[in-house]
Structures
1.
Amino acid sequence: MALEAQYWMHCELYPSNAPIRPQIPTELKHVLLHARSDFLTSDTSVVPYDLSTLQSMLDLSINLVEYVQPLISSGDECVELPAHLMCVLARLMRLFARSKFLNFYGQVSARLNANQSVYEVEQSRQKGTLRLRLANAFLWGAPAAQYKFLQNTWVDNILNYPKWSKHISRLNGDWSNVTIFSTVMLAVDVSFLAVPGVISTAVVAIFLSAMCSVSSLVASMLLAVECRGWGTDSAKGAASFMARMIHTQSDVEALAIMYSLPYASLIWAMFCFVIALGICVFHSTNPATLVIVSLCWVAITTLTLWPAWWGKFSITPWSVPPMNGGQVKEDV
């Protein structure tokens, strides 16, 4: 496959006087049809392009087939395309030949899924270090999700750009929303400090909440700005960025923790504000007031944390999960 990719690179650079078999454009069309269907029906497709790019490539291959079709009827064993068309054909063939080479096409250990490594044991890849577990506990579970995404996207120094691009776009949207929420949280903290008669313990909690709000605001803005300057708008730029940032497994964890900072800081800001509010609420010495407020506080806290419990375990704590995983019903 490596020799085939090099051959097509030579044809791309020197497209003149390069006879080919007339069936090759049809083979390219079939490869693109398979790649498009694989991308549509699989979440872990090894196809390195998104759906719109594959459709554009397929249109080019159809034009090549239409051009070669009259030449096939003449019965010639080899045909010679114009230089520009040969360059188009050679480039597309080179791209998919290189993809086959990187995925060990035709070998026993071929990569069948984009998140599958052909060099490392799966258990060793999924297991994080103690630093990641501590950071995951301190940052409200955010690093674990980012770590899983990075592991499934950057495998064997190969970037799954369609998934990377989609996730980075979603991260940019999340960071923009975190910026808004952090600004609102900071304004609430400053307004809380303006209330007369706030006890000193609550003031300390509000100070911590304001510091976390500023940290979340600054981190989200820095990550959003730097992400635009990383050159990740193209597959080559994104791959260069990942190769520059990640050298070992520890670097993957560090990047996951960095991506989690805006969200985690915002949650800490809310948590400190709730503590300050609770100190002010339960500072009352009236027993009847304390009983009513305590009951309402427990009920509201339970309802607030129910979505987190639902997402992590099930809709009710006492329900038993099914033995078999869920399946998607497909219309035939």
Note: The first helix runs from residue 2 to 13.
2.
Amino acid sequence: MTDTTIDLLFNWGSIIFLPCLPLTYILLNKRNGLQHCVRLAAILGFSSALVRVIPEVITSSTSPHFHAIAMPFLHAGQILNAACGPLIMAPVSQLSCIWFGLNERTRATTIAIVANNFGGTIGFIIGPAIVYAPECIPRLLYLHLGLAFVVCVLTLLYFPAQPKSVPSPAAEVLLVHSTNERNDSWKSYIKDIWQCLKNPSFLLICNVGGLLSGLFNGWVSLYDVILKPENYTELQAGWFSFGSSVAGNLGGLIFAAIADTRPFRRSFKFLINTSCIFCFLSVVWFLLMVHTFFYKKPIIVSTTLTIGLSVGLAGCFKVLDYLYSTKHLLKLCFHFQNLYQQQFLFNGVILLVLFYYLLRLIVVN
């Protein structure tokens, strides 16, 4: 398998994510849109896992034609899995608004985001533990299939469209007025984009959050390359990534509870600025311990502990900035809450792709 093929498989997520965003917006603004999005995501997730297993069923991995047979199924599986991305990430704000009260929304948003990140976090451990040799890869595929099957069945059996009682006036507006008044979804989509683009605060927070999320995710995926000159192994790089993700998840849950308290409920600007500053300082600390284009030798001698602390703090404050930016944008664009989430993710995904290729070119050259 060539590097070009690997890059394409990796980037199907971003490629398919972009055209699916408007479709997700249209679906979310239909009656029971959140329920339809989640069920569709569960079906697509199971379908993608099933498609990737098919080559192992219909042929043997030792067959000379296995590669030619398997590649179309791998690409199809990646495309289906990529289509789940906006269906899972974009409705987060609608989920917290429909199902939770005012003093619970930040925690609800955090748990929804962290739950998605937690899967990737566990992957840093489960993958190497199960796949310790090339012939063990089918085990991981079958594990994915089993998990996707359970989620799909549970979602189809019971996932109500809305709570029995409306938790807040905002939820009532979202459930009653938006579904009844928006008949021309495409015109509404364009109108909402224009309204948001005219809001300077929206543009600033959206681009800051998207920049940080996209660039950080691209940076984390290259820990093994960045830390190789410092004599850290791929296994250690995997643990650093795991620690960064765990720190982000735990920090998000803790500080989300703080943000829901009355003293901080109106202090999102302060929380966003604080998170950005501490994330920047953590990244600077990390950069001083590795080789860069500005100096040939690290300025600060690194240890496993200091590298782990720097990436852990960076991951923690990056997640906090994402969460606080998300909630602040919800206040800015109350009537367009599906749209702002998609724009936020849109910027992050584009920058993730660009930053990945930029870093790859720099590292290779």
Note: The longest helix spans residues 304-332.
3.
Amino acid sequence: MIFSILHIVPITMICFCCCFSISLQSKNASTSMDSVELELLFKVMETLSSDEDWRISYPNPCKPGSSWPGIECRFSSSDAHFHVTRLDFGIYPNPSCKSSAKFPSEIFHLPHLESLFIFKCFTESPTEIFFPVNTKFTSSPLQQLSLRSNSALAGVIPPLISSLKSLQILTLSQNKLTGKIPVQVSSMTTLVHLDLSYNVLTGEIPYQLGNLVNLVGLDLSYNKLMGIIPSSMGSLYLLQKLDLSSNSINGTIPSTFQHLQSLVFLAISSNRLFGDFSNSLTGLQNLQYFLMDDNPVFAHLPVNIGQLKKLQELRLSNSGYSGSIPSSYSELTNLTTLSLQNNRLTGEVPSGLADLPHIYHLNLSRNFLDGVAPFNSSFLERLGRNLDLSGNPGLCMRASEGNGVDVGVSVCGSDKIMAPRHNSEAVLSSCSFTLLTFAAAIFEILRLIL
């Protein structure tokens, strides 16, 4: 009996030790990373940041409770390892970037990376977006790529970026990227948001961008793009935001835009657009913001803008519009901002504008409007300095409604002529109007010649 007990105890102890050892190994494995992926991660970190000696301070970056800032990991039961799924650089508390930071091409080899955000990282040493040569990324799980506000990130957008077939959000704004928008981007049909704004991109907007049928947001503003707006953009039926402002785009708004029934925000200010575009607006029943300042349009204000009942902000200043202000604009009951200054508008101010319940900014200055302004004292008090009627010599205000509020026009019947408000905006606006007049003349000459 004693022998049996002595015989069983060692076996029991051995089994216990084996189980304990296996348990420890399992625990260690569950908090570790694949060695190849770990080495890639360290190379990326050493290329970008010198905040830490990452290999010594964080030998196991994904270990719960001791992971480094700016990293997210996910455990995979298939291989019992943690994998990096997200990296953030440049914004505290995420790792900051060293002055010699370069774009780490190894980052595209991280096999489970889904999101990459690099903000204000490349600010001193020039670098470019670089893809490793002879490498395919068709299986890359990357869904979000954001490289924003990197003043030293230059060069072209590499066509190979289109090999990231799972990408949904691509933000390359506020960098120094040059060259044309690569046509290959149009094959990235999973894209939901594309932002290339505030760069130095040139050339025309690729017609093929109309293939990105899942786009909800497209921002190409503040570049040096030329040519016309492709009619293919009318195929982006899910588009809610489109910003093409501050480029050198010419022509007019394509009639196919009437199909963009999901569009909420449309900004095409500061371009070279001209001519009537009223047929392009039919169907934009969800449009809330329409910004088209500073274009040599030289046409009448579209009457059918009054049918866009959800419109909150309408900016059509400094664009050479002539004729009267359509009375249909009084039906825009959700309107908060109406800017029509520095045009060539004539006639009386529609009385219905005074009944707009949400308007808080109204600028009709520097036109040729006349008659009696239809605004009562409560309207004047509500808008205050946000109402500007100056620079319309034929326009006056009833004495009973003036109430001491300076809106830039004289009291009806008085001999006093109110001078336009002299401020930097008015001076710039006047200069811009002169330039637009000159531009329109050039366009007309070219049209007759060609």
Note: The first strand starts at residue 71 and ends at 76.
4.
Amino acid sequence: MATAALSSSASARGAARPGPRRAAAPPPGVVAARAAADHEPARRLVAEFDPAVPLPSAVTPPSGWYTDPDFLRLELDRVFLRGWQAVGHIGQVKNPNDFFTGSNRLGNVEFVVCRDANGKLHAFHNCPYHGWTYGLDGTLLKATRISGIKNFNKNEFGLIPVKVATWGPFVLARFDHESTEDNVGNDVAGDEWLGSASGLLSTNGVDTSLPHICRREYIINCNWKVFCDNYLDGGYHVPYAHGALASGLQLQSYETLTYERVSVQRCESAAAEPDDIARLGTKALYAFVYPNFMINRYGPWMDTNLAVPLDSTRCKVVFDFFLDKSLLVAVDDQKYIERSLKDSERVQIEDIALCEGVQRGLESPAYGVGRYAPSVEMAMHHFHCLLHANLSVLVECYSAATQLQHVQELNCKTAF
């Protein structure tokens, strides 16, 4: 069996040792209340945004959403470790025995996605430790220096599976705590990930397996949501920050559509110069898949942006570029590719400067909340409402757990 260069799970060592005796566990309600109390400051920040206020009257989330470390910890738990997440593209696991590790680590979660010798796709939690060796199906093949160990069954120490699926050229993973590697159909996963937007994206060429051209990564000194907000402003900033890009778009044609977990911005392109292949084609489509994945389809190109939080004021944005294979033949095509990537790089550098400036403003003591431009920032408001829905679950749990704890305390007093 082929093996991946995967290190063993750190949990394996802990599981092999008997733990210390522990006092009786507190009642479930008490545990829930304590967990919720740990997030109390973040809970208050969640409550400061009201999604029920109509967009023309709404204010944006408070600055703490973009600066507070506790708020990010809450996001990692309630947003990123729930539901399907884009983690890579199928070109990374095209052949049997291919694998990639989760360089886009989410908080304390590291993972590996691999295709076994039979062509089946898997994903596992991957915590490096002591060089144990695993098969691409997660089976423990070799554990080093364990002579003398008792009651050890290597079949009980395989890598912990993660749900994995694909939609079009994208690899999806799901990190829910209760998740196991069930046979999740790609269509089912795609529907859960994209909802009713899947049809629109499919008909606009997003699900086609275009050849992967290159990957670029940027470390940006801003909260991950700043990058997303910038993407979701309906082209508001484009004429002021991206002069060259704006000249290639008909901004008056900009439209925004919102779905369950997806928003789509569309814009017609300006006419191309004669004898030139238009980078933007006739229409550009920008799809945001909650919480942090962006798909841009324009002309023969598709690129994706994945915004990964590093801490409360920094993120990594991973760009993957795909191109219609008809443009990978002639020598002149290479010049076109280089020119297009250079144009894209210029836009990214402009956006980085913009996002880092916004972050500095958010950290200013003079800033509290802002307002939306109702005619263009519908997608941004939609994004904030989805975040609030995920994060406010904790508020409800906190209230219920607190009530349960109070009842249990009364029962204990009565018993004595």
Note: Residues 41 and 285 are 38 Å apart (CA to CA).
